[in-house]
Specification:
Elements (H helix, E strand, L loop, with lengths): L9 E4 L2 E4 H15 L3 H9 L2 H13 L6 E5 L5 H17 L6 E6 L2 H8 L11 E5 L12 E7 L8 H11 E12 L8 H20 L2 H13 L3 H10 L2 E9 L4 E8 L1
Parallel strand pairs: 3-4, 3-6, 4-5, 6-7
Antiparallel strand pairs: 1-2, 7-9, 8-9
Helix pairs in contact: 2-7, 3-4, 7-8
Bound molecules: S-adenosylmethionine.
């Protein structure tokens, strides 16, 4: 189908309705623009709290020696490095020498390049791979991975269902899926303060630090368009994941959806 065709399905890009083709192109533009300042902006926007959410999510994944991990929309590779660290700790505890491996898969080469440049990759030589690919169409055979993670990525997919089906396909039976994403406040009293911070402070910070207010305006709008905790849980179940649980972080600012492939 031609780009921008009138018959193409429309999806949200922040508060705008665009074709799927246009969303893919614009999301690529957003992350190409912010790639070099991405890690710094995350720390500034969340005062470092995103690291605690990721830490808890990876503890839930519970990486084991010898496992294969795929971090979809993995950006600069933070979760993949955490997976390898925790798998090595488990190996040491259990006295086994099987090494886990991880792949950071992202549609945007600029984000991957920013991640590859980090000094702390050295210790993972031969165990950490970087692949530029679309999470909705993964270049891996069925039942390839023990764990798939997606943090702050699936909100940007043009077709979330296609992504969930792919995660299910590439997971081995008994494999784990962890989706960490911005979500919806569970404490209504804090909503007004959160909205003020999101719409007034974050785009300004984006402008100052990354020279790009629009990309951070997209961030806060896209969070509002993402389904509720219960609705996304139902989407994961619909894609074939079982025992799906939801853990809210910081009053629902973010949530971890965790499920098992059967
Ligand atoms: N997971 C990393 C983290 O938590 O820091 C990066 C998250 S960043 C907010 C979102 C990432 O999703 C970007 O690197 C973007 O390129 C990637 N992305 C968006 N759509 C994608 C798709 N269809 N397939 C793979 N990656 C995608």
């Amino acid at each position: 189908m031609a780009a921008g065709s009138e018959t193409e399905r429309k999806v949200s890009f922040g508060f705008e309705e665009v074709t799927e083709t246009e969303k893919v192109a614009r999301v690529k533009g957003v992350f190409r623009s912010v790639a070099s300042r991405y890690d710094l902006m995350n720390d500034l926007m969340s005062a470092g709290v995103h690291r605690l959410w990721k830490h808890d999510a990876m503890n839930r994944v519970n990486p084991q020696p010898g496992e294969r991990h795929l971090d979809v929309a993995g950006g600069t590779g933070e979760l993949a490095r955490a997976f390898l660290t925790l798998a090595d700790r488990a190996a040491k505890r259990r006295g086994v020498d099987r090494e886990a491996t991880a792949i950071v898969c992202d549609i945007n080469d600029a984000m991957l390049e920013a991640g590859k440049g980090r000094a702390d990759n050295e210790k993972w030589t031969g165990r950490l791979d970087w692949v530029c690919a679309d999470g909705q169409n993964l270049p891996y055979p069925d039942r390839s991975f023990d764990a798939v993670t997606v943090s702050f990525g699936i909100r940007n997919f043009a077709d979330r269902q296609a992504g969930l089906r792919e995660f299910r396909r590439v997971l081995k039976p008994g494999g784990r899926l962890a989706v960490l994403e911005f979500s919806h406040m569970t404490a209504p009293a804090l909503q007004a303060a959160y909205d003020t911070y999101s719409f007034n402070v974050i785009p300004k910070l984006g402008s100052l630090v990354a020279g790009d207010a629009d990309s951070y305006q997209y961030l806060v709008e896209s969070i509002r368009q993402f389904p509720s905790q219960d609705a996304f849980k139902a989407e994961m179940e619909g894609a074939g994941f079982s025992r799906v649980s939801v853990t809210n972080y910081s009053g629902g600012i973010a949530a971890l959806h965790f499920g098992w492939a059967v």
